[in-house]
Amino acid sequence: MHRIIVIGRGMIGSAAGRHLAGLTDGVALLGPDEPVDRTAHAGVFASHYDEGRMTRVVDPDPNWSITAKRSIERYAEIEAESGIPFFTNSQFLGLGAAGSDYLANCETHGRANGADTLGLDADGIRARYPFLRVADDAEGLHEGRNAGHISPRAMVRAECEAARRRGAQLIAGEARAIRPVTGGVEIEDETGTIYKAEKVLIATGGFTDVCGLAPRDLRLRVFGRTVVLVRIEADVARELAGMPTMSHAETGAYILPPIRYPDGHTYLKIGIGTTDDPEFRALADLKGWFKSEGSAANRRDFQGFLTTLIPVLARCDHWHTATCAVTWTATGLPYIDYALDNRIALAVGGNGKGAKSCDDWGWIAAEMLAGREWSHPIPRERLELPAGLT
Ligand SMILES: Cc1cc2nc3c(=O)[nH]c(=O)nc-3n(C[C@H](O)[C@H](O)[C@H](O)COP(=O)(O)OP(=O)(O)OC[C@H]3O[C@@H](n4cnc5c(N)ncnc54)[C@H](O)[C@@H]3O)c2cc1C
C-alpha cells in the first residue's frame, strides 16, 4: 500500500511527485512513457512530447505570473537535483500594436513579480532583432533574466528523476479505473494490475475526462492544436542568432526560436490557437488527433504568417506539422482540489500555458495532499472545482 500515488507523469504530475516525495514517504508516480512509434501506439498521449515551451514571468493574468515566477526560480534546483538540464534563457519578446492592453497587463503583473522588463518601439525591436519585419506602430515587451524556453520532455524527465532520488517509485502504466475502497483507493492499470494507496492525485491533463478517471465529469474543454515546424539550416541559423521566444498579441501566435530536436535537426516552431481547432470529448478521437498531422489550413496560414514576420524563413524548404492538445477549465486556472473526500484529488487544466508554471501547480497539489496549511499567494478557492459538477 502506497501513501500517495500520482497518476500522470506529465508536467504537473511529475512536479507534484517531486514535491510530495520531499514531504512524505510512500509516494509513487504512475503513467506511461512516451510512445516510440506514435502512429502504432494504442494508449494515451501527453501534451509535453516536444522540445520547446515558452516560459516567462510576464503574463496578463497575475495568477499565471506568480506561479511562473515561483516555478522558474526552482529550475536551477530541479536541474541540479536531477542532473538533467531543461531551461534555456533565450529571453522573451511580446509583440503588440501601439497601446496593446495585453502587453500593458503583462508588464504590470510581470513587474509586480520581479520580471526584468523593457518596453521597445518598432525601431528598438528592429535594432535588437534585425530579422523581424514589424509595422511602424509595433510595440514590444522584452523580458530578460527569467524568460526563454524549456524542453518539456527534459523537464518531465528531470522532475521524475528528482522524485526518484527523493524516494518515489516510478511505475510505467496507464490507469483504467480508480476506485475508492475501505481505507484508501485502488487503481487498476491496463494489464489488470491493482495498486493501492491511501490517496491519489489525478494529473492526467487532457485525458482526464475522456478516460473517465475522476469521480465527476470535470467538463474540461480539450482542443486539438496544430503547430508548424520549419527546419533551420546553418546559414539561416546565423541570421536568427539571439532570437527570443515570442508571442504576438493580435493573433495569439507563439514562436519558439531554433531548438535542436531528437532527430538531430534544428527547428523553429509556431502555434496559434484558432476557432476552427477541433474539440474532443471521446478517447478514440483524442488519440486519433495525436496520431494525425493536424490541420492543413493551419499549416498554410502559419507558414504565411511566419515568413511575413521573419522573411529569412522563405529560404527554408522543410516545413512540417505536429499535433498537441490544450485543456481548458471553466476558471482559466488549473483545478487543484479534492474530488472525493480526502482520498481522490486532482491537479488538471494547463489552459494552454501550464508548462511554465507546472512546478508551482505541482507544489500546490503536493502541499494539499500532504495536509499542509495553505500558504500559496493564490487563495485556495480560486483553484477549487466549480459547484455543480456531477
Ligand atoms: C502546441 C502546444 C504548445 C504549448 N506551448 C506552451 C508554452 O509555450 N508554454 C506553456 O507554458 N505551455 C504551453 N503549452 C501547454 C502545456 O504543454 C500544458 O499546459 C502542459 O503540458 C499541461 O501539463 P499536464 O501535466 O496537465 O498535462 P500533460 O503534460 O499532458 O501530462 C499528463 C500526463 O498524464 C498521462 N496520462 C494520461 N492519461 C493517463 C492515464 N489514463 N493513466 C496514467 N497516465 C495518464 C500522460 O501520459 C501525461 O504524461 C502548450 C501546449 C500545446 C498543446
The portion of residues assigned to helices is 25-40%
- β-strand amount: 25-35%
Per DSSP E runs of 2 or more residues, the count of β-strands stands at: 20
Number of helices: 10
Please explain how this structure is put together:
The protein folds into 2 domains: 2-51 and 152-220 and 330-383, FAD/NAD(P)-binding domain; 221-328. It has helices at 11-23, 62-72, 75-82, 101-112, 122-128, 152-165, 234-239, 283-291, 296-309, 354-369, and strands at 2-7, 27-31, 53-55, 87-88, 92-97, 117-121, 138-143, 148-150, 169-172, 175-181, 184-189, 194-202, 221-231, 245-248, 253-260, 266-271, 279-280, 319-328, 335-340, 344-348. A hairpin with a 4-residue loop joins strand 14 and strand 15. By secondary structure, it is of the alpha+beta class. The protein is built from 10 helices and 20 strands. The mean pLDDT is 97. Strands 5, 6, 7, 13, 14, 15, 16, 17 and 18 form a 9-stranded mixed β-sheet that branches. Strands 1, 2, 9, 10, 11, 12, 19 and 20 form an 8-stranded mixed β-sheet that branches. The structure holds flavin-adenine dinucleotide (FAD). Flavin-adenine dinucleotide binds at residues 7-13, 30-32, 44, 46-48, 53-54, 152, 174-175, 203-205, 207, 211, 213, 225, 227, 254, 271, 324-326, 348, 350, 352-356, 358.
